[in-house]
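Write out this protein's structure.
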Amino acid sequence: MESALGLQAFAAKVEGRGAVFRGGFLHVLDRPLLLVEYMESYPTRWLLAEIAEAYETAVNAGMGFAVSNVPPGVPQAYMEREGIPYTAESFDRIGCPQPIIVLDMRAPRRMEPWEAASSRCIVIGGIMGDHPPRGRGLLLSMRPGVALRNLGGEQMSIHSTAWVTAMLYRGASLDSIRLASPGIIEWETPYGSMTVELPYAYPVDPVEGRPVIPERVRRAIIRGSMWDEEVLHFSF
């Protein structure tokens, strides 16, 4: 009963945002649904900022967006505050329509623009990653009825993955998207300059010519670096 109620609430959130929920299954309308499967044990500002920016990127590109497997507490409260559709159920429980693409850097094939446009559901692992990568995203590919694809074989952040996927959906090819690795963030403090090197590949904005790291993500990284990437328990 609790599961059914959770899915009903999810149905209300996705209505009008690229999908509808009917007869116990998710029905995507005329556009792909970018679905982030939340996979981290503890919420951090950086993780939540990545998801929020991925949401804005997908919606601005005309894609649907939702987050699955969201635990109660701070993560769900954050989704509510930001207006992001979410469910506590994992993506294989919400009846994603096929074809389903799961993105992972170790996939044997690259995602093509026509696949990004024709797929009904594109799943991103909602993880911050590891250095070196442990391949946790591959767990998603073990679900039935999915095709595994990569975005060039490099580890990307959640938002970067959404950004590149949105570009493919709009018709760009992977070969036309330049990546910068590693990501570098620099800022000034009362004690001098600080630099953080991020173990991800970031797409380079074709107009500005610099890696795409949203300001909200940048602020979360700086704050986490100065306070040991605080885990959020009570507030955000």
